C-alpha cells in the first residue's frame, strides 16, 4: 500500500515562498491544511513520490505546466451571478454616465473583469448592461475577463452553471438568458457567451499584463484579500496603468484601495464606493 | 448586439516582453506611463535595484515614484532597502509614507539595516524606524527597543519605543522603562505611557 507523502513545516514554508513569488498569493499558517491537501494530490498525480522530487520538478520544469496545474488547484473559485449587485447598479446608473461623458463616439467602452473565475461576473456585467443601461443602444462595449486558472477559464467559456450559481438572478433573466438542462443545470445562451473575451493572466507577471491598457472600468473583487501588502501594491500599480485617466475600479466589499495605494481617488456614489484614476494622471 | 468581443489584447500579448535594456532605457522616457512600466518590469533584472534607486532620486511624478518604491520593496536587496531607508529623510510626506509601507515588507530581509536606522543621527528617521519594527517580526525587536529606552537622547524616540513595547514587549522590558523615566524625569506624557506599559507588561491592566 502506498503511503501518503508527508509535507513538513519546512516544506510548507519553502513552497509558500515559491508560490508567493510566482503568483503574489500568500498562504498564512492557518491555510496549512488547504495547501497540504492540494500539494499531496499533485505529488500523487505526478507520481513524484515525495515533496522534494515534486518541488524540484515544479521549480525547474521549462514548460511551466505543473505550476499552472498547481495554480489551478490552489485558487478559490466560489462565486455566483449578480454577486454584490450594488456595484452593477452603480455601473449602469453612475459610472458609465461619467465614462461616456468623456468619450468620443468612435471609442468603445472597455471593461475588464479580473479574476473572472467561472464567468459569473463578466456575464453578469454583460446581462446588466443589456437589461439596465440605456446607453447600450449608443455605445459599443468590449468585455474582457481574465483569470490565472486555465481550468476555470475553460468552464467560463462553456457557460454551464449549477442552480446555486444562478440563484440570485431574477426569474425573467434566468429564462431569457439560460436554457435549463435535463440534469437541472443552466446553459448560458451563445449571444452572451460570445460577448466576453476570456484570457489567462497572472496579475504579478509584467509580461502578462503589459497589453492590458485602455480600460474604463475594472472589476477586481475578492482577489486582493489573498495577496500580501506588497503584492497588493503591485496589483494596484498594474490597474493604474491598465485604466484610462478617469477610469474606475470596483473592489470587493471588504477591500479598500485607500489602504493599498495613494494613486487613486475615492469616489462615493449612492450605490457603492469605487476608486478612480485621476483625470489628470499621465 | 452592441457588446463587442475584441481579441486585440490577445494579439498584443503575443509580443515579446521588452528586454531589460529597453526597460532600463525606458526609465528615462518622457512619458510617465512608460517609466512606470519600466519600473515594474525591472524587478527581475540584474542590477535593477541600482537603476531604480537612481531614477527614484530624480523622479518627481508621484505615480512613477510609487511604482519605483514598490519594485524596490519586491527586490529587497541591500541597495533597495538602503535607498528606502534614505527616503525616510525626505521632506516629502508621501514619499516617506510609501517608503515606510515598503520597508514593512522589505525590511524583514535585512533587519541589520533597520537596526542601523534605529541609531541614525536624525531623530525623525529613528522615530519612523521604530514604526517599521512592528511589522518586522524579528525576534530581537524587543531588545532593540530596550536599547533605545536606555540610550536614545530624544524624548519622542523613547516615547515611540514605549508605545510599541506596550504592544509587543514582555516583562523583561520593565527595568528599561523605569530607567527611561529616570532619564526624562519631568515629562508627564512619558510617565503616563510608561506607567501604562509597565502595568500591561506585568499583566496588571487589561487595557
Automatic annotation (TrEMBL), chain A:
Single annotated GO MF: protein-glutamate O-methyltransferase activity
Residues annotated as binding S-adenosyl-L-methionine: 77, 79, 83, 121, 147, 202-203, 221-222
Keywords annotated in UniProt: Methyltransferase, S-adenosyl-L-methionine, Transferase
Organism phylogeny: Bacteria, Pseudomonadati, Pseudomonadota, Gammaproteobacteria, Pseudomonadales
Residue ranges constituting the CheR-type methyltransferase domain according to the UniProt record: 1-280
GO BP: methylation
Class of this enzyme: transferase
Annotated protein name in UniProt: Chemotaxis protein methyltransferase
Gene3D superfamilies per UniProt: Chemotaxis receptor methyltransferase CheR, N-terminal domain, Vaccinia Virus protein VP39
Listed SMART domains: MeTrc
Function of the molecule: Methylation of the membrane-bound methyl-accepting chemotaxis proteins (MCP) to form gamma-glutamyl methyl ester residues in MCP.
TrEMBL record, chain B:
InterPro entries: ARM-like, ARM-type_fold, PBS_lyase_HEAT
Pfam families named among the record's database cross-references: HEAT_2
Source domain of life: Bacteria
Descriptive protein name: HEAT repeat protein
Species this chain originates from: Pseudomonas duriflava
Amino acid at each position: 500500500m502506498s503511503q501518503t507523502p508527508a509535507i513538513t513545516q519546512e516544506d510548507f514554508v519553502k513552497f509558500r515562498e515559491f508560490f508567493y513569488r510566482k503568483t503574489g498569493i500568500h498562504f498564512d499558517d492557518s491555510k496549512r491544511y488547504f495547501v497540504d491537501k492540494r500539494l499531496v494530490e499533485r505529488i500523487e498525480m505526478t507520481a513524484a513520490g515525495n515533496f522534494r522530487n515534486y518541488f524540484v520538478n515544479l521549480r525547474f520544469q521549462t514548460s511551466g505546466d505543473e505550476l499552472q496545474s498547481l495554480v489551478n488547484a490552489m485558487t478559490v473559485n466560489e462565486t455566483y451571478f449578480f454577486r454584490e449587485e450594488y456595484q452593477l447598479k452603480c455601473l449602469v446608473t453612475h459610472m458609465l454616465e461619467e465614462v461616456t461623458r468623456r468619450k468620443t463616439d468612435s471609442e468603445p467602452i472597455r471593461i475588464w473583469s479580473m479574476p473572472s473565475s467561472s464567468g459569473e461576473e463578466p456575464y453578469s456585467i454583460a446581462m446588466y448592461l443589456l437589461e439596465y443601461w440605456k446607453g447600450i443602444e449608443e455605445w459599443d462595449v468590449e468585455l474582457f475577463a481574465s483569470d490565472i486558472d486555465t481550468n476555470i477559464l475553460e468552464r467560463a467559456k462553456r457557460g454551464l452553471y449549477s442552480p446555486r450559481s444562478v440563484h440570485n438572478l431574477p426569474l425573467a433573466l434566468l429564462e431569457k438568458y439560460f436554457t435549463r438542462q435535463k440534469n437541472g443545470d443552466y446553459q448560458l445562451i451563445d449571444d452572451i457567451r460570445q460577448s466576453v473575451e476570456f484570457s489567462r493572466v497572472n496579475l504579478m507577471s509584467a509580461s502578462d499584463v503589459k497589453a492590458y491598457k485602455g480600460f474604463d472600468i475594472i472589476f477586481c473583487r475578492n482577489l486582493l484579500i489573498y495577496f500580501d501588502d506588497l503584492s497588493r501594491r503591485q496589483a494596484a500599480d498594474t490597474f493604474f496603468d491598465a485604466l484610462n485617466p478617469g477610469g474606475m475600479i470596483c473592489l470587493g466589499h471588504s477591500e479598500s484601495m485607500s489602504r493599498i495605494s495613494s494613486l487613486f481617488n475615492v469616489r462615493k456614489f449612492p450605490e457603492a464606493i469605487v476608486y478612480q484614476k485621476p483625470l489628470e494622471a499621465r | 448586439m452592441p457588446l463587442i468581443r475584441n481579441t486585440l489584447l490577445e494579439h498584443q500579448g503575443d509580443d515579446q516582453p521588452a528586454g531589460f535594456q529597453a526597460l532600463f532605457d525606458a526609465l528615462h522616457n518622457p512619458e510617465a506611463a512608460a517609466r512606470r512600466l519600466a519600473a515594474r518590469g525591472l524587478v527581475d533584472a540584474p542590477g535593477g535595484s541600482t537603476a531604480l534607486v537612481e531614477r527614484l532620486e530624480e523622479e518627481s511624478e508621484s505615480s512613477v515614484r510609487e511604482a519605483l518604491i514598490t519594485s524596490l520593496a519586491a527586490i529587497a536587496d541591500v541597495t533597495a532597502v538602503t535607498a528606502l531607508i534614505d527616503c525616510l529623510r525626505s521632506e516629502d510626506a508621501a514619499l516617506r509614507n510609501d517608503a515606510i509601507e515598503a520597508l514593512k515588507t522589505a525590511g524583514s530581509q535585512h533587519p541589520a539595516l533597520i537596526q542601523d536606522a534605529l541609531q541614525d543621527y536624525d531623530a525623525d528617521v529613528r522615530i519612523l524606524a521604530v514604526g517599521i519594527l512592528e511589522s518586522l517580526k524579528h525576534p530581537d525587536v524587543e531588545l532593540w527597543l530596550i536599547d533605545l529606552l536606555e540610550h536614545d537622547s530624544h524624548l519622542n524616540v523613547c516615547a515611540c519605543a514605549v508605545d510599541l513595547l506596550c504592544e509587543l514587549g514582555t516583562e523583561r522590558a520593565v527595568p528599561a522603562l523605569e530607567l527611561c523615566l529616570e532619564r526624562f524625569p519631568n515629562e508627564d506624557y512619558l510617565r503616563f505611557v510608561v506607567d501604562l506599559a509597565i502595568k500591561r507588561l506585568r499583566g496588571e491592566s487589561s487595557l
